[in-house]
Description:
Blueprint: H1 2-15, H2 18-43, H3 45-51, H4 63-67, H5 79-122, H6 133-167, H7 178-191, H8 197-205, H9 222-234, H10 241-248, H11 251-254, H12 256-264, H13 271-281, H14 283-306, H15 316-327, H16 340-368, H17 372-410, H18 414-447, H19 451-508
Helix pairs in contact: 5-6, 5-10, 6-7, 13-14, 14-15, 14-16, 15-16, 17-18
Amino acid sequence: MSGGQEGTGHAREKSRSPGSDETHQGRLVCALEMEMTKRALHANSKADCGNYDGLVHRNGGDSAEVAVPVSLSGKRATQMEGDDLYRLRDRKFLLEDKKRLCALALAAALLGILLMILHTEMCPFVYKPGTDIALIINCSISLSTGCLLIFIIAFHYKDIRLFIIDQNQVDWRIAMTSHRIFLITLELLTCAIHPVGTYWEMGLHGNSSFSPPLCDSNHHNTTLADLELLLSVLMFLRLYLVHRAVLLHSKVLLSASYRSIGSLNNINFTFRFVLKVLMNKYPARTLLVFILFFWLTASWMLTLCERQTAGSTDHMETALWLIAITFLTVGYGDVAPNTRCGKSVCLFTGVMGVACTAMLVAVVTKKLALNKGEKHVHFFMLDIQISKGIRHAAANVLRECWLLHRANLTKRTRGEHRRHQRCLLEAIRVFRHLRLKQRKLRDYVSEMVDLPKMQMIMCDLSANWNNSYRELEQRILSMEQKLEELSRCFQETSKLLSQVLRHRNQEIR
């Protein structure tokens, strides 16, 4: 049976044409290559994961479908198309990793700030000599700071890899410019700030169980307390991660349509653009959240700064009142900060209050402005009222002219004549004022004609011109056809006339 099958196969191969034989051989070679590639990828799946820096294939475990790109025609894609598919897949995974790492970094930063607030608020009441609560909380702050630094380093590592993929480069050192290195270093230094006074106190006293609490006002080392206060306040600089999280988790950046249209219009998707979009879509909500968060944060910072002085501003309710009147730029003067730190917080609050007030005025103005339909209705009714006033003013001018003319004819007293002249001049003034007001209103209405309306008008005009041009072309073509028919008829008529004349001449002869 096998010999018969081989003979039949040889006979079929001989009966084929040379072109079909080459096509069949090419398909066999392609199938063999795809099978070998699948087996090699299944055998070396661990090595493949290592080559992509730990990125997991997210297609249900079938790595062959990702590694061997297939074109729309069913043939194996070229090496260039495969590289493009690899780059798109890696870019998608890197963006997701960046978003996840940014969220983790923000969570670690907020956890450190909350632990710092807890550490500061518990200091006057809970920390006693011989307890290790301060050491435990400070160690927790340091641990969250270490996790934050690790997340930031991983985020910038993904960012550098994404830059290499976007620029189609191989060497990662190309992305490490001096500006990038400076920003990464500054970011790491900012996130590394946290209170370490407990460790220094342990080192100074040798035994933390007998050392007095750092928040004690009678502490012998006030420099250490001031440094602890400064480091606690500077921990709020970690909140710069909020703008990065908002940018990476915004629908503007995640929407493919936004990014496509933005790339066509050379728009950079930065936090400024996202903030403008939020202020246009949700202005009141965005301002309310920012103002409340800033109010609470600045009030607590002022309380922390004024706590060492034991004044009136070391209570939270007084600090809330002082921050509110400073933010609103009222400044009653009943409460004032005593320390340099508190004065700095109040100064920054006043600057932010001016900026937020300007944004609030802009938002309220936009909300109170009339839309296009309301403007058209309002200005239409104003035009009608002014037209009525113009008609009444014109009638008053005519009436006063007639009364003045009648006073001249009847030769009345000079006082009555002057009164009619004054009334005539007043009527003329009112008439001119209303005409000027109507002209200004119509000029303003003419300026309201927006670009889309003008574009629609121009499109209609161009469409009408195109239709007229087509009709003219058709008429010209019909005239050319008729002229050709007439010329052909003239030629036939001339031929018939020549034949008739020739026949007549022969008969006459």
